[in-house]
Structures are given as C-alpha cells and as structure tokens.
Design brief:
- The protein is an all-alpha fold.
- It has one domain.
- The chain is built from six helices and no strands.
- It is globular and about 50 Å long.
C-alpha cells in the first residue's frame, strides 16, 4: 500500500509538471498542445463526460497514475524500475505516437503540426524524467 501511495504522489507531481510545462508553452508561445492533455473526444464513452467541468483534469491525472503504476510494474519484472531512462524513453515514445489521436477530434492542436508534436514530446520527456527521478528516490529511501 505504501508503494501505491508513493506512485500516486509521483503521478500527481509529474502530471502537474507536464501540464504546467505545456501551459507555459501555450501562454508564452501561443501553441495549443496543452489542450490535448484533457481532450476525451476520441473515446466514445468519455466524450459525454467531457462536458462536465473538471473532467478533463480527472482524465489527465487518472491516465498519469495508470501509466506510472503500469510502467513501474512492467519495469520491475525486468529489473529496470530504478533506471530513469526507461521512464523517459517509454513516456517520450508513447506520447509521440499518442499525439496523433488528435486527428480524431476537431479540437486543437492539428495532427499535422510538427511544432505542437515537438512540444508534446518534450513535455512528456520531462514527465518521464520527473517520474524516473522520484521513483529512484523512493526506492533508495526504502533500501
């Protein structure tokens, strides 16, 4: 239970850093990659929920939590859970592919926007760094 609590804290902190990074990009560079974090248009069941205020934030943080917990346990199977690079590589590559879900919605950013894709991928690399560093710290504390 203690590990799950630490992974929850890790996902909240890293998810906040991710959203903050993309919000800064949106405000300072007028790029809408931030919007994709909260977009549920392409998921039929969640499309109806999207109209509820704050549901996009819940979606974002639940997805962060599920991603962090899943990758941690997969990495643990192959004894790579302490390696920051695993989190950076998987979250960066995964987000690079998931970005193109934006083609399934009318909301920005455009699936053909190379600069939005780049900001999206860099933001997720930062997310992976934060996740990896926090997990490595937690595991060192437990040793």
């Amino acid at each position: 239970m203690r590990l799950l609590y630490k992974l929850l804290i890790t996902s909240i902190v890293s998810g906040t850093v991710l959203a903050g990074f993309l919000k800064v990009v949106q405000v300072s560079l007028n790029n809408d990659a931030y919007i994709l974090l909260f977009n549920m248009d392409y998921i039929p069941l969640l499309k109806k929920v999207e109209k509820i205020n704050g549901s996009g934030y819940v979606f974002h943080f639940v997805f962060c939590f599920v991603s962090v917990v899943s990758l941690f346990h997969i990495a643990k199977i192959v004894q790579l859970e302490k390696h920051i690079a695993v989190y950076v590589i998987v979250f960066t590559a995964g987000s690079g592919m998931l970005y193109f879900l934006t083609a399934l919605t009318n909301q920005p950013p455009s699936a053909t926007s190379v600069i939005s894709w780049l900001y999206w991928v860099v933001a997720h690399a930062v997310f992976g760094i934060v996740v990896g560093v926090m997990i490595k710290y937690w595991l060192k504390q437990d040793a």
